User: What shape does this take?
Amino acid sequence: DIQLTQSPSFLSASVGDRVTITCRASQDIRNNLAWYRQKPGEAPNLLIYIASTLRTGVPTRFSGSGSGTEFTLTITSLQPEDFATYYCQEPNGYRTFGGGTKVEIK
Amino acid sequence: QITLKESGPTLVKPTQTLTLTCTFSGFSLTTSGLGVGWIRQPPGKALEWLASIYWDDDKQYTSSLKSRLTITKDTSNSQVVLTMTNVDPVDTATYYCAYSLFVWGFHYWGQGALVTVSS
Assistant: This one.
């Protein structure tokens, strides 16, 4: 099975900060990676797919990059609604999710 | 507008079989490239993909639970059913169903259904 390791697990940031989250795969998954944001008490929401394609309607402050085994999600200017937990997922083969990164208010 | 909603018991006893139904609208599971998956999330923990079924009736299961899971679809009633046998308290979680487009991830999610396994 493919393992996805996210880092950091927690991060504290302020509104307006630039934030980067990393997702590392245990084997080459090419560009088969999706990113989700989950606000407390809500279902996850897809932000990015195929590693770097922004889903329609998602703000442009979100961007994704990477291929192979290392991927990043960047939020250029953190907004209040972005304090949430973020998950990466390999949606093609094993459909594994990463362990999550919780973004908290500093 | 695509919507999905999970339904099923809120409380199940250990060793029983759990049956969850996902009722959806806004798409047909006969359309090429579409799928519906089940994902669960224990309280305070990460997401775990369980199973997916596709327009061509292809079925995929997570390897760790494959022997306990069955996923089926009823296209005429726009439903997908997940059964999990021999449940245990560690299966306590919020169970989500979600719509997938090709292999691009889960684009739409239900609100989730909390299932507690306890005697």
